[in-house]
Specification:
The protein has 108 residues and is mainly alpha-helical. It has 4 helices and 3 strands, in the order βααββαα.
């Protein structure tokens, strides 16, 4: 692994991530204001450090905007719909778990 390449799970600075996706740093800062899901760690001096999940989200946002032709509003809607779908699946799974627990209690 070259000295400049980090491990997959390593934190990335805003400069490293901006260079990776080929966008200026101010675009990443702007995306932070538009996408509440994007919350890099901030340290002294307001330095941003992106966790692996943040890096994946930035790559996805970049892909949707530059390759898929989405607008900022369109990406916001897509991410919100996916979050709602995940929440719905979680509720459905909880209902299944609760019904299984009831069935086990009845068998006792």
């Amino acid at each position: 692994m070259p000295a400049t390449e980090k491990a997959a799970g390593a934190l990335r600075t805003i400069g490293e991530l901006a260079a990776e996706i080929g966008r200026p740093q101010h675009i990443l800062r702007y995306w932070e204001t538009r996408f509440p899901q994007l919350k890099p760690l901030t340290r002294a001096g307001n330095r941003r450090y992106y966790r692996p999940e943040d890096v994946a989200l930035v790559r996805r946002i970049h892909h949707l905007l530059s390759q898929e032709g989405y607008t900022i509003r369109g990406v916001q809607r897509l991410l919100a719909e996916e979050k709602a779908a995940r929440k719905g699946r979680g509720t459905e799974l909880k209902a299944i778990r609760d019904s299984l627990a009831e069935a086990l209690d009845e068998d006792r």
